[in-house]
Amino acid sequence: MTAWAHSLIRISNYEVETLQKRLAEISSRKASAEVRLAVLDAEIEVERERARADAEAGMLLQAYMAGWKARKGAAESDLVVLDAEEAGARDALTDAYSELKKFEHVAETTRLNALIAAGKRETAAFDEMGLRRRSA
User: Fold this and answer.
1) What are 85-99's pLDDT values in tens digits?
2) Coiled-coil ranges per the record (predicted)?
3) Residue ranges per domain, the chain?
4) Buried (b) or exposed (e) across 58-92, using 16+ Cβ within 10 A?
5) CA distances from 110 to 36, 89, 91, 106 (A)
6) Span 53-69, mean pLDDT?
7) Alpha-carbon distance 83 to 31, whole Å?
8) Is the pTM value of this prediction over 0.70?
């Protein structure tokens, strides 16, 4: 493999690995946001149960729900942003992987062409040696 092809492949591998790490980090943040939403849903159910059992808690439920709706809205908007970020990261990773495969294909084609050329030179050398022996 030529030095330039090796360098391009190494750089592309680094880019792919970096994007894979970025995607993993985004997926982790997304999972955390989904857990936060689930916890918020569980919290409101607990508060509703408490409000059914206790009249004072029932009076405070509306104020709690207002704050809960704001927190849930923020968590849902974070999740929407993370979904878009994840889609962008997946697209970037797909593009980088495609570029890596192109470089690998070019390097392999170059290597095969060099082998074919070496084979042709060897065949020509043997043909020439055969012609010399015949004429001698």
Assistant:
1) 999 999 999 999 999
2) 16-50
3) 3-100
4) eeebeebeeebeeebeebeebbeebeebbeebeeb
5) 52, 31, 29, 6
6) 87
7) 11
8) yes
